[in-house]
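tool_call predict_complex ligand=zinc ion
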Amino acid sequence: MCLKTYLQIPHVVLAPAISTCPLCGNRLHVRKTMSRGVRGKSAVLRVTVKELHRANPDCKLCHVPVKPEGLAFFYLPRMVYGTDVVFFVGEKKLKDWLYRQIREALDVKPALSSLSRLFHLFEQLA
Ligand SMILES: [Zn+2]
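tool_result ok
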């Protein structure tokens, strides 16, 4: 993918809402930044996640990373497709749509085998 195409992909940056430790009051520091592409219902998104940590070694929570709260709204761990696609597939399959019809309704065209996996995941979540 060329740089021009990459920069045209909608970009979402997720960071925790808090910037200080609620226990000791010290400032939180960026532990790591992860960026990945997520296939949503109508478009591909570039999602960057900022994970924070506590630099104070005396804090009882210093080993606990602070992750953004709304992460599951965009994607689930190890999933290529976004949460909106999972729920769209589940909703349509429960209405007796065929996988081929669901695929035609989505702008991102997942493989039919991926749709059955997404529906299985939807059943686990519901
Ligand atoms: Zn602390």
